[in-house]
Amino acid sequence: MACVKLGSKSDAFQRQGQAWFCTTGLPSDIVVEVGEMSFHLHKFPLLSRSGVMERLIAEASDEEEEKCVINLPDIPGGAKTFELVAKFCYGVKLELTASNVVYLRCAAEHLEMSEEYGEGNLITQTETFFNKVVLRNWKDSLRALQTCDDILNYAEELNITNRCIESLAMKASTDPNLFGWPVMNHGGPMQSPGGSVLWNGISTGARPKNVNSDWWYNDLSTLRLPLYKRLISVMESRGIRQDIVAGSLTYYAKKYLPGLNRRKNTSESSTRLTPTVLGSPPSEEDQKLLLEEIDRFLPLQKGLVPAKFLFGLLRTAMILKASDSCISNLEKRIGMQLDQATLDDLLMPNFSYSMETLYNVDCVQRILEHFLAMDQITGGASPCSVDDGQIIGSPSLTPVTMVAKLIDGYLAEVAPDVNLKLPKFQALAAAVPEYARPLDDGLYRAIDIYLKSHPWLEESDREQLCRLMDCQKLSLEACTHAAQNERLPLRIIVQVLFFEQLQLRTSIAGCFLVSDNLDGSRPLRSGIAASSEGGWATAVRENQVLKVGMDNMRTRVSELEKECSNMRQEIEKLGRTKGSNTWAKKFGFKLKSQMCSAQEGSVSNHNSNSGKIEQAKHKKN
């Protein structure tokens, strides 16, 4: 830290308890009281340097008291600063630093210590040191700004605060690799005009290390919120990048909001952003004010801060009962980048007094609505379809698909909550567009968990809930599970069995098509590699594997046909019991004809393709 020494005499002051005495040999003729401290001094050194002291001494002398007593209650910096002022008046050695120059400059102005009362007076000395030394150095400018907080009114009148802020903003907004900030100002090696490192004035040829753009984050986090806000505003007016501003705000928030660090890993908390342990955390009211200011200053742009950090702010805002506008803004910010969130982020506890549900499902619903609204604005909600497992639609469908998978996982996590009402579960599940789910396996899993945790639901409610999923978009494994799931309504099970059979028929037809292609390609392959025995062995193995796969599929189709036949008999019995067959027609398709066509198709495919396999074997032999 830079410093300048004023005066030439040795220290001639001694402290005894709450009093300072000048040991020049002459008896004291004036007592100056500053707070609880008394200074036993002499009139002449004081009135020869200060206009205020000259007037006060003259007024006290008119009262014809034995000893002149002057009270200075409002001097900037208090007794500690006046001690330095008194030493300056006596010509004692005085060291100017970034830590005391602001106090001395304000005290000198308050006591009118101008050039009118002596050449090289304290105002001139402190002003010169402040402009030529402090403002040119990052650390000194920061330290001077910190001292302004204690005497802000005096510092504002002399424009000291603004000058410190402008100096810091200029240095932070400048590329540190161009002018050496903060390398030169942090006590590092000096640089030559060519950019190489200097040692004792001799160029070493080594190049200095590049400095990241976040080098000043920790320094500015030592400022109190009002000064930090003013500095950030000036930086933004100077055109500093938005991501740098967002990074500084994130650092500042993590330092003074302990709630943001509670969910961090131990490895992270031990290496970064842990200055909160150095002192007591702010009060809840101060944390609430800080959080609302952070939300106000954060740029409204996607991806500037991690989604996990935004969720942490939202969770803390709910705990501290921040304003509704603050919570709404945070939900909108999260909605802009919901595709970057994780399931752990969404699992926010419900902090309301009612405690209807374990997790805050309503908040997730609002965040999802913000995401879908933003997706429509950006053109990401164009229609699409699922054709042969390929997603057809706009290129921006990927974030929507990721969010759909995330919401399905969230539904599965909150489904066991017995207090979660059916309309709320249905509303969140239905909010995801149909095109966003290539498969409904995740939604089926969530519905199954909800039905298991809410066994008292009526049949109509179960059927209404199951209508949220599309049986045609269930994978073969999900269909197999659903066909044996006793919690699903009978109507849904029949639909699942029907579409599972269609999937199996399609798969078998595809396998036969592959077999035909293999048969057609083998003569060509054998003609090319007639001398290689490995080609024949590969073809035989492929044929065997294909045959085993088709046998397994035919076995599964046979089992499904038996199950469908048994169910059809049960349905007919129920229809005869009720006296009509209208109940069976509610399934929306002709079950008997479909079963017959499925059987005929499987048998015909089996006969025709069995012949093809025998012909292929005959050719190989």
From TrEMBL:
GO terms for biological process: protein ubiquitination. It holds the Pfam family BTB. Transmembrane segments: none annotated. The keyword Nuclease does not apply. Keywords: Coiled coil, Ubl conjugation pathway. PANTHER family: OS12G0117600 PROTEIN. Residues 543-577 form a coiled coil. Residues 600-612 have a biased composition (Polar residues). Residues 28-98 form the BTB domain. Pathway: Protein modification; protein ubiquitination. This is BZIP domain class transcription factor. SMART domains: BTB. Residues 600-621 are annotated as: Disordered. Residues 214-503 form the NPH3 domain. Gene3D superfamilies: Potassium Channel Kv1.1, Chain A. SUPFAM superfamilies: POZ domain. Belongs to the NPH3 family. It comes from Tripterygium wilfordii.
